[in-house]
Amino acid sequence: MGIAGIQLLQRFASKARWTILALPWLITGCVTPVEYGKIPHSAYVAPERCNPTDATQVDRSDKPFFFVTSRLPDCLADDISLLNHRGDKVRYGHFATPRDDEQGSDGTGHTVPLAFSASQLWWTSLADKMKAADGRVLLYVHGYRETFFSSSRDTAQITRLANFNGPAIQYSWPSQGALLKYPVDETNMYWDERNFRKFLMQLAQLESTKEIILISHSLGARLVLPSVEYVDRNVPNGDSSVISNIILVSPDVDTQDFERDIAEEILSERRVRNDRRITVYASVNDRALSLSDNYHGYPRLGYPRCFDPFEAADLKARNLPERCYAKYPKYAEAIDKTALTIVDSTAISRGTSGHSNYLLSAPVCKDFAAVVNGVRKPAGRQATHLAYVFTLAPPSKGAKLDHLAICRRNE
Asked: Which residues of 368-388 are buried (b: 16+ CB within 10 A; e: fewer)?
């Protein structure tokens, strides 16, 4: 058998493997109910430490990160943990970098040191830290299949990677943290939209807020984008320009929905002139979004397959990769500022799913860190036939990158 035949078999085997993995995700995940548990949810939140007041003293000296969550907390155990159920209200708190234990309080072998705070004290603490950082704040919204431990770990890594010296907030919604619970995650994400948009509105209107760097991963983009639209429509005087740097990593968003509704509102001419921009990281090697694409029937923003076969044929005839991206907003073409940038990381995908290149692949980590810090055109990007789409090339032959050291900077 020739090389071409072997490559064809390898592609078929890879596709078959992920199709097999998709079957329980699509079938079992749709019919398996979420178990309530053996303890009443009201019992978990009854202890006082779950409901601090303005008079409650919170030691946050060793907990540098901020969090907001709609997850149900477990305040019965020695160490407070956040469960995968919906909480009774939105809670605020501080956390430290997660640590691996022999056996964590949630039985996973991981612990996230955290403490809840009364909301007013939390907002005051956040404002003080923002003032010391010229009003910049980083807000991270996780995606599908995440626990509070994994999203806390990622928040800490993003902060280190970008060397960000302002306050970093993670917004943690009740993802189930399980492969077979994608439909449940979708349901909880939509349920939480009201909570998140109210929080984002308050953050945007805080006097000390000058710039919000808003980062979402995967399904989190579907929580972020409509909430930004909501703030844009409802903030007094229409001034929501503090939400300026929006970064969508592997966004699990309908591409056509983004083109038709989201881009026109969020990237309106006025907002782009006020420095609003969106950066999208996409890859055709993203197996998680490939499954989502199959599940929903239409292309995902972070997975640039060509839905139109005639467009794909035209690209092939021009000797170009058969990849189709969200279109650039027409009204923004005349503005001397970049509204939308798409970075294709296909050539340098890492990990079993290719869904988290921004935290695993050195070239993507470098580009992502630069974008977080406001760099418009980081070094290392290669131009494509589309002015707003760039690729990240693999290292030259023989060169070796220490992905771990670069992406987990100073861990």
From this structure: bbbbbeeeeebeebeebeeeb
Contacts of 11 (CB under 8 A, 6+ apart): none
Q: What is the pLDDT of residues 348-362, one digit of tens each?
A: 999 889 999 999 999
Domain parsing of the chain, residue ranges: 3-34+60-407
pTM: 0.91
Could you read off the pLDDT of 6-46 as tens digits, one per residue?
A: 444 444 445 445 554 555 455 444 556 899 999 999 999 99
